[in-house]
Amino acid sequence: MSGRYDLKLLYSRDEIAATVRRLAGQISADYAGNDLLVIGVLKGAVVFMADLIREIDVPLEIDFIGLSSYGDGVTSCGKVKLTAYPTARIEGRHILVVEDIVDTGLCIEALLKFLAERRPASIKVCALMDKPARHQVPIDIAYSGFTVPDKFVVGYGLDFAQRYRHLPQIFTLEEAAGDGQAAADD
Ligand code: IMP
Predict the structure, then answer these.
(1) In a domain, 168, yes or no
(2) In a domain, 173, yes or no
(3) Average of pLDDT values for 61-80?
C-alpha cells in the first residue's frame, strides 16, 4: 500500500467494550480458583490488555513480550524476532497471551514456542481480532474477539507506521479516493 489513506469505522467504542467484557467473563469463569500470568504482546496489545485485565476477576500478574515481524508498512517481512522478554517466572504458571490481532499467525507461533520451552502449567491465547483468511499456520485462539475481513486495521492499540494506536475505535485503512486526505470517521 502506498499513498494517502482514509480511515473507515469498523468497531465503535461500545462494540469493543462489549467484546472485552465478553472475553473477560469467559476468562474469569475458565480460570476461577487459579492465578493467571497475563502476557501482552507489545506494542499493539497494550490498549486492549489494559481494558481486559480490569474486567477479569481472578488474581493475576501482568508481563509483556516484544515481537517484531512488520516494518513501517502493511506487509509482513515474514521474519519474527523477539525484541523484549518477560521478566516473570513462566514455569508452572497459567499463562494467558494477549494479542491485538492474529494475521499470518507466525508471531504468535514463535512466542508460544518461546513460552512453551519455559514449561508453563498451561498456555492459552486471547486475541482481540483474528483474520482467519490470512493464517499460514494453525493457531488455537481460545478467546477470540472479532473475526475481521482481510483488511488492514488500525486504532485501539494497532498502528500503521506507528500512527493511530491512540484512537479509541477500530478502523480499516482504505486507499483514499481522489486527492484523499487521510481523515478519521466518527
Ligand atoms: P502475524 O504474525 O502475521 O499474525 O502478525 C501479527 C502482528 O502483526 C500483530 O500483532 C500486529 O502487530 C501486526 N498486524 C497484523 N495485521 C495487522 C493489521 O491489520 N493492523 C495492524 N497491525 C497488524
Answers:
(1) no
(2) no
(3) 72
CB of 97 sitting under 6 A from ligand 1: no
Please indicate, yes or no, if residue 77 is contained in any of the structural domains.
yes
Report how many domains make up the chain.
1
Instruction: Look at residue 19 and tell me whether its pLDDT is greater than 70.
Output: yes
If you search the block for the grid coordinates 507489545, which residue do you land on? 42
- Closest of 10, 14, 19, 57 to residue 144, by C-alpha: 19
39/96 Cα distance (integer angstroms): 6
CATH code for the domain in which residue 97 is found: 3.40.50.2020
- Give per-residue pLDDT as tens, 92-108: 999 999 999 999 999 99
Specify if 50 maps to a domain.
yes
Closest ligand 1 atom to Cα of 148: 19
* Protein residue with least CA distance to atom 5, ligand 1: 103
